[in-house]
Amino acid sequence: MDYLPIFLNLRDQRCLVVGGGDIALRKTSMLMRAGASVHVVAPAIGEALLAKLAEGEGSFRVGPYDEQDLAGAALVIAATDDEAVNRQVSADCRARHLPVNVVDNPPLCSFIFPSIVDRSPLVIAVSSAGQSPVLARLLRARLETTIPAAYGRLSSICGEFRGLAKQVFPDTNARRGFWEHELQGRFAELVYAGREDEARVHLRAAFAAATPSSVGEVYLVGAGPGDPDLLTFRALRLMQQADVVVHDRLVSKPILDLCRRDADFIYVGKARSHHAVPQEDINQLLVRLAGEGKRVCRLKGGDPFIFGRGGEEIEELAAAGVPFQVVPGITAASGCAAYAGIPLTHRDYAQSVRFVTGHLKEGSPELPWAELIHEHQTLVLYMGLTGLEHICQELVRHGMAADMPVALVAQGTTPQQQVVVGTVADIAGKVAGSGIQAPTLTIIGRVVELRDRLNWFRPDDA
Ligand code: SAH
After folding, report:
1. Are 52 and 40 in contact (CB under 8 A)?
2. Which atom of ligand 1 is the closest one to the Cα of 413?
3. Are 381 and 441 contained in the same domain?
4. Most C-beta atoms within 10 A of its C-beta, which of 22, 162, 169, 179?
5. Are residues 352 and 437 in the same domain?
6. Annotation marks residue 270 as catalytic
């Protein structure tokens, strides 16, 4: 973050605006909206600005800027077209540690103005740290169109009930849960419909009926293969309301960044051959956190029910009577195939697809080789590179054509995605020493040949 977004209380604070033109007028209006007492200094002050100042009981002095003007100011804006004056104001303010903004000159600023969506008391500020104000404004325009005007009234009414909410739900988590429910339910709908009195009656009744619950909930959420755009809406919603996020190694950083900022994050990642937290401990952790009344988001790579041990986790939750829900995610096979331009089935080449894991439970027998070999079936291997050579050799030994095409997709759907293409006979050799990074997924079948024609993601791949 280049700048820290904060909201300043300027009510009745003296703010100095240096400059008397249109830009000074805009800044003065903005400061007055926040209740500031504005003082303008400039050799010439426009009519409209004078009128604005009169309206809000602002003051002014006609004349050149002088350091004395800074006395008593809480914040300063320089909006002149005289570069030397702007520099002087900036330097004087900095020497006094006074927040200063020089319009359109970020190097001279100690703070910058965001684009804002004003649904007071709800305010959204958007900034691109000065890198692309146009983009920030476009985003603002999008927010303007998607956020109902009634959000302002909605937050005001919530404000009226804050005291009662604290009384009824002394526990923060329970209170948050109550508001989340009401703000997505009848209370909010009544406010949107302009029936505010009924909304208040509804809310009072809801408080009266509330029994603060101490049982939390677990959301078993599939986070997809890496690209945050592949999350489902439900995944995102639950990620943003969870009190605790329990995640493993496959969940990418950009996805974690979309979780609620002030949630607790617990990493229980498993790397092959060294299990950071044993599965049994993870299961118990989920039960314990929910028992403390927390809403726990158990975030897993891909889909929780495909080689994700999701089944084991919810078995334990069910046994302990903990409420839970499961959110499917895009599994690595779908994600990697789509982003590598390989359809997993195709009328002419493959009428079935089979997902197989190479991470076998200890003591398991080998894979059922004969079943894996079909000219018209696509095989997807969920596993790292270890064992790839052995599996390919066995497939050929059990009758797979040696020229059967193979694509190995590493870090699929992320900007680091790499694809290596070969055949069952030579893929292991091609991959060895290629410096490819986990996680990797292997797709075996005639459909791989379609990649040349259908790949849209990264035409330059190996
Ligand atoms: N539940 C997950 C799979 C977990 S098993 C899912 O549905 O996708 C872990 C294996 O998934 C890894 O060894 C790798 O083979 C595969 N995998 C997961 N994400 C991947 C990615 N972004 N690129 C390639 N393979 C991936």
Report:
1. no
2. 22
3. yes
4. 169
5. yes
6. yes
CATH number at residue 399: 3.30.950.10
Phi, psi of 97 (to 5 degrees): 60, 35
Residue 273 has pLDDT above 80, yes or no: no
Largest CA distance in the chain: 93
Ligand 1 centroid from CA 438, angstroms: 9
User: The domain containing residue 175 runs over which residues?
Assistant: 150-209
**Nearest by Cα to 241 from 327, 321, 159, 167:** 327
With a CB cutoff of 8 Å and minimum separation 6, the contacts of 201 are: none
238 and 326 in one domain? yes
- Among the ranges given (155-159, 269-273, 314-318, 369-373), the one the predictor scored with the smallest mean pLDDT: 269-273
Ligand 1 in reach of 413 Cβ (< 6 A): yes
Dist. CA 250 → ligand 1 center (Å): 7
Torsion of CA 75, 80, 86, 90, to 10 degrees: 10
The whole-model pTM stands at: 0.71
The model's pLDDT over 360-391, given as tens digits with 9 standing for 90+, comes to 656 555 889 999 999 999 999 998 888 899 99
Instruction: Check whether 462 has a pLDDT greater than 80.
Output: no
pLDDT digits (tens, 9 = 90+) for 34-66: 999 999 999 999 999 999 999 988 999 999 999
**Degrees to nearest 5, angle at CA 238 with 291 and 293:** 15
Q: Can you spell out the DSSP letters for 90-159?
A: HHHHHHTT--EEETT-GGG-SS-PPEEEEETTEEEEE--TTS-HHHHHHHHHHHHHHS-TTHHHHHHHHH
CATH number assigned to the domain comprising residue 275 = 3.40.1010.10
Residue (of 14, 22, 138, 7) closest to 80 by Cα position: 22
80 alpha carbon – ligand 1 mean position (Å): 57
What confidence tier does 137 reach under pLDDT thresholds 50, 70, 90?
confident
Structural domain total, the chain: 4
